[in-house]
Amino acid sequence: MSTKTKQQMKTEWLEALRSGKYPQVQRALKGITGDGEEGYCCLGVFCSVVLGEEPELCVVDEYSGFVEGPEETYSKISVILGDVATMGIKMNDRDYTFSTIADMIEEMWEV
């Protein structure tokens, strides 16, 4: 587990989400955008930037439209983020922008 404080994690994550550097995808920690480039969901950005663990590239199932990520990764994120992880997933997969998700994290994640 990271030796960063939760405040450091929060600051890094918010900066990354608001930076415009990370293309956004849904239903996968890391996937391919409609433009064919690699992108992340909000929790994928957390893994990459805060935890320093690059998520595996996932391909969304064309029939179900859903991809399950590595359970171990989601468990680690849930321990750190609690309900913020669940809310982030819901907002990300409903096409809220990273900026809007960052606003939610800023308000809800008490560190």
Describe this structure in words.
The protein is mainly alpha-helical. The protein has five helices and two strands; from the N terminus they run αββαααα. Strands 1-2 form a two-stranded antiparallel sheet. The protein is globular and about 35 Å long.
Explain the layout of strands and helices.
Blueprint: H1 6-18, E1 30-32, E2 38-40, H2 42-51, H3 71-81, H4 83-93, H5 98-108
Antiparallel strand pairs: 1-2
Helix pairs in contact: 1-2, 1-5, 4-5
User: Main β-sheet, in a few words?
Assistant: 2 strands, antiparallel
Low-pLDDT windows of residues: none
Mean pLDDT: 88
Strand content: 5-15%
Distance between the termini: 17 Å
Rg, Cα atoms, Å: 13 Å
Number of helices: 5
Overall shape: it is: globular
Order of helices and strands: HEEHHHH
Strand order of the largest sheet: 1-2
Give the class from helix and strand content and strand pairing.
mainly alpha
The helicity comes to: 40-55%
Give me the count of strands.
Answer: 2
Summed up, what is this model?
The protein has 111 residues and is mainly alpha-helical. 50% of the residues lie in helices and 5% in strands. It has helices at residues 6-18, 42-51, 71-81, 83-93, 98-108, and strands at residues 30-32, 38-40.
